């Protein structure tokens, strides 16, 4: 076996992948096609995947997977979208195709059943945000809820809005926006914590479905060479904090005790529940088994760029009164972080806009000063857009930047439109600047916002060439192959206190590794592609 083909402990360990997408109820509802056939969600007889499929269909010329049922093509797209049973809108670049896919889903569903899915990116069709009126006519008997690719915004049709009791008289919840026209009419778009107003109306999936989805999602992650994931749970601003704990006890602990865990997980929980996590750690320690690790707590500072809710010092280019959303008051964020940190818990905070990142950096600096010196490994999830000097503060304060390279591909065009080219070019996705002198840069995927494919993300970090571009976006921020792999492995393990067991192939550590389809380091270093031939967990071959 050529040692050059073995990549250290993960081209695998992904930070923030949310690999099981325990993020919200609608996603679990959309996993039904993983399970035995139901009339509203047909299951394929055959799935062809892991190849390049030319379709001769102008709306989707190429795909890597195809589902077949009763001799006819059921769905074409990515393997992830076929197995996860969503209305896949990720590649849609025309309004007409957006509507067609939702109409097709409605035709295949019972009246009254929910049409769920997402992944849409309005920048692909020019930037216009979708409206409920686009799909109302083709979904008169079905409620619809489809989220934007970043998970911070979703579109509901009029049926869904009525079921949820959302009207033009409804007030915006704290940390969220119910989008309206200039005349006050609902557009169907719900942003950040406003999504909770609708999600409560989507029927919960059964416990058995959630458990089955865990197994299926884990198998898919293994095919990509992922052996350990960090899961932040079904948690977003305004969501019930109990969801993450329900999944911990009813899904993860069940799978562990019944021998069904096949991938290692590090779990984070809502910061409001820090005392519950502390109690678990005091009773059982951080390592519950060879499969389950207790991580820390998470909070949100802002929204996302694509939803125009990321928090910036300067307003959005075409929205002079919009600086984004601050999802938590400074005093509350400081108090929750102080309390969690004083209890010895690791803290991770979502921040995308430059003002949100400065806010969190300030909070972390204050907490460290108040609680004293210790190995705390504070994390900022995403750290996508930074003000001048902020990248250096990460290194100076010992803050870990948990970054997802493939988001760069989706944001390159929209960042210039929303922020202006100069501002976007100077402050976005500063991989090399964040790497600093202490290696505090950890990579992940944020699946299913982006596909769970570390090899693709490593290539992105090396090349930084968005679709349709000839040159890199921010060439001085490109990483070397070694730096990108380290960010996915040893640095990612360090970022969640797992580096004693994972993250590198060293004597005494767990033998988690992958074998790739190439034995040429130079090929990968030049930005070449490769695929996973085999994934090993604890020295035992898993799948494929």
Commentary on this structure:
- The protein has 544 residues and is of the alpha/beta class.
- It has helices at 25-29, 79-84, 95-107, 132-136, 158-163, 196-199, 207-223, 242-257, 274-284, 330-342, 354-371, 390-397, 407-419, 421-427, 431-435, 454-463, 481-488, 490-494, 521-525, and strands spanning 6-7, 46-54, 62-69, 72-77, 87-88, 115-120, 144-148, 153-156, 176-180, 186-192, 228-231, 264-270, 292-300, 346-351, 379-382, 400-403, 441-443, 513-516, 532-537, 540-541.
- The protein folds into three domains: 42-79, Urease, subunit C, domain 1; 84-200, Roll (Diaminopimelate Epimerase, Chain A, domain 1), CATH 3.10.310.70; 207-543, Metal-dependent hydrolases (TIM Barrel), CATH 3.20.20.140.
- The chain is 32% helix and 19% strand.
- Strands 11-12-13-14-15-16-17 form a seven-stranded parallel sheet.
- The longest helix has 18 residues, at 354-371.
- The two termini are 17 Å apart.
| Number of β-strand runs | 20
In terms of structural class, how would the helical and strand content be classed? Answer: alpha/beta
Cα end-to-end separation: 17 Å
Residue runs with pLDDT of under 50 for 5 or more positions: 1-41
Which topology of the largest domain does CATH recognise?
TIM Barrel
Taken as a percent bin, the fraction of beta residues is: 15-25%
Count of separate structural domains? 3
Fourth CATH level, the homologous superfamily of the largest domain: Metal-dependent hydrolases
Q: How many helices? A: 19
Whole-angstrom Rg = 22 Å
CATH level 1 name of the largest domain = Alpha Beta
> In one word, what is the shape?
globular
């Amino acid at each position: 076996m050529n040692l050059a083909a073995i990549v250290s402990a993960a081209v695998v360990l992904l930070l923030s992948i949310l690999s099981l997408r325990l993020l919200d109820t609608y996603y679990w509802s959309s996993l039904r096609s993983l399970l035995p056939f139901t009339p509203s969600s047909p299951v394929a007889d055959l799935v062809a995947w892991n190849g390049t499929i030319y379709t001769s269909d102008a709306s989707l010329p190429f795909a890597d997977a195809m589902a077949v049922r009763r001799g006819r093509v059921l769905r074409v797209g990515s393997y992830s979208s076929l197995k996860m049973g969503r209305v896949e809108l990720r590649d849609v670049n025309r309004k007409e195709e957006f509507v067609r896919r939702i109409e097709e889903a409605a035709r295949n569903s019972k009246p009254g059943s929910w049409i769920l899915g997402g992944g849409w990116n309005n920048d692909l069709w020019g930037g216009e945000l979708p409206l409920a009126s686009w799909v109302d006519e083709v979904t008169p008997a079905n409620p619809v809820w489809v989220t934007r690719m970043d998970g911070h915004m979703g579109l509901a049709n009029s049926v869904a809005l009525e079921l949820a009791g959302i009207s033009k008289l409804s007030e915006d919840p704290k940390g969220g926006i119910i989008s309206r026209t200039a005349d006050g009419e609902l557009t169907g778009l719900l942003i950040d914590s406003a999504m909770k107003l609708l999600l409560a109306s989507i029927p919960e999936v059964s416990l058995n479905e959630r458990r089955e989805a865990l197994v299926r999602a884990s198998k898919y992650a293994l095919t990509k060479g992922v052996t350990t994931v960090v899961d932040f749970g079904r948690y977003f601003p305004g969501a019930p904090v109990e969801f993450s704990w329900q999944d911990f006890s009813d899904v993860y602990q069940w799978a562990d005790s019944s021998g069904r865990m096949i991938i290692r997980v590090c779990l984070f929980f809502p910061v409001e529940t820090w005392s519950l996590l502390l109690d678990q750690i005091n009773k059982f320690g951080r390592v519950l088994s060879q499969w389950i690790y207790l991580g820390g707590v998470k909070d949100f500072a802002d929204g996302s760029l694509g939803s125009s809710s990321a928090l910036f010092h300067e307003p959005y280019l075409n929205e002079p009164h919009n600086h984004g959303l601050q999802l938590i008051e400074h005093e509350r964020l400081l108090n929750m972080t102080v309390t969690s940190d004083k209890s010895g818990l690791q803290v991770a905070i979502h921040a995308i806009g430059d003002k949100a990142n400065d806010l969190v950096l300030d909070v972390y600096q204050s907490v460290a000063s108040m609680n004293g010196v210790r190995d705390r490994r504070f994390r900022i999830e995403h750290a996508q857009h930074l003000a001048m000097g902020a990248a250096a503060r990460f290194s100076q304060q010992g803050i870990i930047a948990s970054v997802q390279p493939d988001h760069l591909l989706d944001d390159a065009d929209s960042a210039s439109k929303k922020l202006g080219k100069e501002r976007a070019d100077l402050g976005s996705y500063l991989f090399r600047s964040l790497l600093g002198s202490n290696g505090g840069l950890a990579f992940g995927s944020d699946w299913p916002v982006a596909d769970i494919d570390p090899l693709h993300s490593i290539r992105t970090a090396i090349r930084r060439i968005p679709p349709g571009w000839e040159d890199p976006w921010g060439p001085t921020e490109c990483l070397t192959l070694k730096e990108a792999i380290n960010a996915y492995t040893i640095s990612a393990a360090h970022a969640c206190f797992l580096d004693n067991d994972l993250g590198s192939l060293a004597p005494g550590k767990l033998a988690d590794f992958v074998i790739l389809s190439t034995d040429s380091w130079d090929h990968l270093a030049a930005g070449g592609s490769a695929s996973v031939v085999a994934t090993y967990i604890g020295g035992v071959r898993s799948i494929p």
